[in-house]
């Protein structure tokens, strides 16, 4: 008779998988992907290391899954900011502020998502992450052009420039050598990033 997995067994497997993901996420939040060692994750999740590889083909697959989950949270927050009241330029400004302030409040995770050296599978997710932001910004820029609050321009190219500018502006302050200095004193940095991005987008000095 063929083995048939019971509902109880399926539930236990799903719970173990979720614990592995949650503990990996915790490790990345605390010390980046470099600190997420399989032995440590297994200990935190209270599973054998072999159990991890029954749920994920490789460490890279596990990290890619955690990267996707982390970026989905950030993209959701930016999307919420883009849906706030106001014209397109005001909504873009709110989204840029949301992105920057959240990054500075969680510098280790933000560094991991933006710039930490990672495996190729995770790097693929990073590229998808940047594209998702560019898609959101492009849509809003097009709305702004239609409204007249943003000058006529190549919306796709401008959205890509916005993503690059904000990411590169944050890399230094978020790097491991600077994270201990991340406090409310970074508010001027957020303002400077937004001023640069919005002046470049609208051509209006802010």
From TrEMBL:
Annotated HTH tetR-type domain residues: 14-74
Superkingdom of origin: Bacteria
Statement: the UniProt record of this protein carries the keyword RNA-binding: no
Protein name: TetR/AcrR family transcriptional regulator
Record key words, sorted: DNA-binding
InterPro entries referenced in this protein's UniProt entry, alphabetically: Homeodomain-like_sf, HTH-type_TetR-like_transc_reg, HTH_TetR, Tet_transcr_reg_TetR-rel_C_sf
UniProt DNA-binding residue ranges: 37-56
GO molecular function: DNA-binding transcription factor activity; transcription cis-regulatory region binding
Pfam families in the record: TetR_N (PF00440)
């Amino acid at each position: 008779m063929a083995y048939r997995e019971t509902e109880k067994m399926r539930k236990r497997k799903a719970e173990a998988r979720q614990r592995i993901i949650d503990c990996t996420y915790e490790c990345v939040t605390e010390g980046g992907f470099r600190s997420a060692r399989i032995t440590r994750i297994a200990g935190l999740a209270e599973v054998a290391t072999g159990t991890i590889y029954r749920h994920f083909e490789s460490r890279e697959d596990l990290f890619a899954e955690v990267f996707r989950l982390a970026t989905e949270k950030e993209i959701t927050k930016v999307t919420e900011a883009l849906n706030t009241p106001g014209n397109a330029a005001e909504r873009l400004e709110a989204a840029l502020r949301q992105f920057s302030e959240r990054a500075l409040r969680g510098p280790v995770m933000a560094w991991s998502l933006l710039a930490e050296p990672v495996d190729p599978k995770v790097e693929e997710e990073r590229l998808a992450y940047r594209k998702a932001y560019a898609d959101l910004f492009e849509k809003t820029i097009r709305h702004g052009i239609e409204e007249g609050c943003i000058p006529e321009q190549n919306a796709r190219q401008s959205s890509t420039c916005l993503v690059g500018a904000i990411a590169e502006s944050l890399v230094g302050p978020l790097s491991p050598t600077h994270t201990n200095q991340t406090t409310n004193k970074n508010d001027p940095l957020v303002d400077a990033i937004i001023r640069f991005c919005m002046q470049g987008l609208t051509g209006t000095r802010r």
